[in-house]
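Task: sequence design from structure.
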């Protein structure tokens, strides 16, 4: 006996597809709607740390992730000088999971793997659709979708990202705020000199870094003050990113030569929010970026989203009903853990903005210890 027999998942990102996989595997009838026409076509690179990899292994997709991505178990700090001088290597804090500390991969590959797994287990996915109305009667949720009218479910999971439609429909109006930083990202081929993430703090940008995403690919990023870059053409965007990259050396010299495709460059602002309290209203619950978002300064956004889904489904499958006890357990398992990571992500960026020498090693140690514990 489980707490639910039918679930509507809104959102086809990591949190939504993970929840769909785990529920469908347990025999729950799952519908998933995603507003985008194809989630596997969106994004560049992603850094997936060990706590996320543990969830992906439980989802039954680790072999595909291992083949598609690029694993490594340390990162390095380099100086923003004319040589890109290697300062020191930081070995990752690992658990006895047998998994690498980090896997870099092409974000659309991760999306494709999760979508295919969900479909293979019988979840019904519909793209180009979302919910427009939710009505609860205490025992179920009546959901009106933009493509197929009305359906009734035991539970609705809002995994539809920042500025969540589901959140708005249930009265959770937690809007993200900009943190003051903007990030240039580019996806390109991987030179032999890049075998892990290296970070450069300072110089022309606050952070310059890169992450291998496969044998033949990587994504590189540069963090600056948040600016309105909307008026720039693709060629102008590429020129700005290459101009910033000119100030960094070492492997950046190899990467910069490969920054040639304007369509592979994008720019976004860092934002953050946290729903500070229960993430549900009755039988509708938010997970992932719908409930919390943070700058990628500690690379935990997708990991937290995957954990949300795993913990929620674990509790649903162990319970007989959806009640206050279940929601209290979910809040206890997730809120403080997520808050620690979100606060650390924002604090690291704020130190850089303020030019302060904060306790970065201590902050990173806190994050590593937090996410190293089972979710």
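Answer:
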């Amino acid at each position: 006996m489980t707490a639910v027999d039918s679930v509507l998942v809104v959102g086809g990102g990591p949190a939504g597809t993970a929840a769909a996989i785990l529920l469908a595997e347990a025999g729950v009838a799952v519908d998933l709607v995603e507003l985008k026409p194809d989630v596997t076509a969106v994004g560049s690179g992603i850094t997936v740390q060990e706590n996320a990899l543990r969830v992906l292994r439980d989802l039954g997709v680790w072999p595909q992730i291992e083949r598609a991505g690029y694993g490594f178990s340390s990162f390095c700090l380099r100086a923003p000088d004319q040589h890109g001088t290697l300062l020191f290597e930081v070995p990752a804090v690992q658990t006895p999971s047998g998994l690498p500390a980090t896997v870099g991969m092409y974000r659309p590959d991760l999306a494709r793997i999760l979508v295919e797994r969900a479909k293979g287990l019988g979840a019904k996915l519909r793209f180009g659709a979302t919910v427009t109305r939710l009505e609860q009667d205490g025992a179920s949720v009546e959901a009106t979708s933009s493509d197929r009218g009305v359906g009734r479910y035991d539970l609705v999971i809002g995994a539809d990202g920042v500025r969540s439609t589901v959140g708005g429909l249930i009265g959770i109006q937690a809007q993200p705020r900009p943190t003051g930083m903007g990030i240039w990202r580019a996806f390109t081929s991987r030179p032999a000199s890049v075998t892990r993430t290296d970070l450069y703090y300072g110089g022309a940008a606050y952070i310059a870094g890169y992450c291998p995403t496969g044998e033949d690919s990587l994504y590189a990023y540069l963090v600056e003050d948040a600016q309105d870059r909307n008026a720039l053409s693709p060629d102008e965007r590429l020129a700005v990113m290459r101009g910033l990259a000119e100030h960094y050396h070492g492997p950046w010299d190899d990467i910069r030569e490969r920054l040639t495709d304007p369509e592979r460059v994008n720019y976004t602002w860092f934002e953050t929010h946290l729903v500070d309290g229960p993430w549900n209203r009755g039988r509708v619950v938010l997970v992932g970026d719908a409930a919390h978002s943070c700058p990628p300064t500690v690379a935990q956004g997708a990991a937290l989203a995957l954990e949300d889904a795993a913990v929620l489904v674990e509790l649903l499958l162990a319970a007989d009903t959806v009640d206050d006890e279940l929601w209290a357990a979910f809040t206890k398992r997730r809120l403080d853990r997520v808050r620690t990571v979100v606060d650390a992500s924002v604090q690291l960026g704020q130190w850089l903005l303020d030019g302060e020498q904060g306790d970065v090693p201590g902050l990173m140690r806190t994050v590593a210890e937090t996410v190293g514990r089972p979710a």
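Residues 6-68+107-176+272-372 form a domain with the FAD/NAD(P)-binding domain fold (CATH 3.50.50.60).
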